[in-house]
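User: I'm preparing a small set of examples for a lab meeting where we compare how different chains pack in three dimensions. I only have the primary sequence for this one, and I'd like the structure in token form so I can line it up with the others. Please keep the answer compact; I'll paste it straight into my notes.
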Amino acid sequence: MVEAAPPPLHRGLPDDFAIWEILVRLPPKSFLRCRAVCRAWRSATTARDFLLAHHARQPALPLIYGLGRDIESLDIIPFDHRVGVATADDRLLSVARIGGPYVRPCISCDGLQVLYIGVDQLSIVNPATRQCARLRGFTVTDTHRPVGMYPHSLSGEYRILLAPHDPDDSYQLYTLGSSQPPRQIDIDGPVVEELSPFTLLLFHHTLQWCADNVITVFDTIAESFGEMLAPHGTDQFVMDEIYGGVLFEVDAMLGMFSLNAEFTSIGIWAMHNYESRVWAFKYRVELPLAELTVQFGDFKPYCCRVPSSWDGDVSMLLQFGDWLLQLDMDGKVVASLRRHKGLLPTQHRLKQTLVQHSFFTALEGYVVNASPFM
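Assistant: Understood. Below is the structure token output for the 374-residue chain.
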């Protein structure tokens, strides 16, 4: 008697449906485990079109960096504040730890992280694929600093924008995977001190920063600078004393927030139609500053961030003493997270990607799942 074959693991579920409706939505770690189920799944999910679709469906989570003692390690931590996350600790799970001398964050884009590993050497890492390489021919100088990274839609390249300290110097562009040093570009723009990479927003093919009620816009297609005004009414609020006004994306719209002088309320604006450049005041959030200070410690306004929005719910991330607090639009604490190490909240986002980028293998010191990953 011939023994009956075991039933399929996905009985009654067509492979196409399982692959394009379920696997495509899984986080990278779960997705990689599912590849081992059968050859059909592994073959389909290694194709570039599938990996691009998988990346498109990953959430763009606010990024926090965990700074190790003596700056010899760095945790890459997406702040997962979505509904359904089990516990407060689950909101701060590291996806990768990087080790090395004087390791610290620089810029981020499309799931890729550019980090300083050493005093003046930059490396690029993909936390999801655990790939790392040094940027060949690229050593940070005293004259220029990286202020943004973006995909150049016309060429398909990833490029890094470097701003000068001296307004008489030229801007520079570095192409990932190139063996050439950064090239000079003849454009006018702000100096590096006015363009903090930690508050940078990549929005609608532009890089954007806000300072002194003016938003600086770098068009990543034309590769040129422009300006637009911050929302009317921000004179009632105090721009972030370190970085200036903070921009963010909310429901595919450009948003901005700032604190008032007493740090007791936050104003939030949104631009419903980006082409019209018209701002609308959306929220005034009252902060129970005295109550939170007594319970958690002194407020640190330079760490105030608006992480993101799901289904119209905007949430804020603020730092009081050794605590990171997630607040809703009523000023109520949604989650309180005790810092076990130095945490650096930024406006960076991590949208994890398993897409294999060809530039990695062209770079110096390319490794997979090896040092500097810990």
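A couple of notes for your slides: The chain has five helices and 26 strands. Helices lie at 15-22, 28-34, 39-45, 48-56, 289-296.

User: Perfect, thanks.
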